[in-house]
Sequence to fold (172 residues):
Amino acid sequence: QAMEDAAARVSRYLSVQFLLNVGFGIPIAIGLHLIGVPSAVLWGILATALRFIPYIGAWIAAATPIALSLVISTGWVAPILTVGLFVALEIFISNVMEPWLYGKNTGVSPVAVLVAAVFWTWLWGAVGLLLATPLTVCLLVIGKYVPQLSFLDTLLGDEPVFEPKKRVYQRL
Fold:
C-alpha cells in the first residue's frame, strides 16, 4: 500500500512538472516571437526541456535567446524584453505555481517543498536538487504508514494536525 501511494504521488509530481514546463515553454515561444527573436518555437521547446533541471535549467535555456536578441537588435529594447520575459516567467512559475501545485498534488506542504529543495541540494548537490521533491514525497508516505515516523507526516504534510474543534481550543 505504501509503495503504491508513493508511486502515485511521484507520478502526479512528474505530470505536474511536465505541465508546468510546457506552461513555461509556450509563453517563452510566444514572447520571443513577439519580440522578434528568430526560431522562437525552437527556444520555447528548449526552455520546456531544460526546465526539467531545477532552478538553473531556465537560465541555461535563456542564454542563447538573450545572446541572439543582442545580436539582432540595434538597440537595447529586444535584449531587455527577452531578459524580462525569462525573469518574469521563471519567478512566477518557480515561486508561485510550483509550491502551490506540488503541495496540492503530492500532499507535501509548499513550505516543505522549498525547504526540501534547499536541504537535499546542500546534502547531495545537483543530484539532490533533482531528487528533492520525489524524496520528500517518499518521506511523507513513510511517515503516513510507519507509526514511529509519523512526525514526518505532521512535519511535511499539508493536512492540518488538529481537527477544527481542537484547533480553536489550542489557540484559545
Remarks:
- The mean pLDDT is 85.
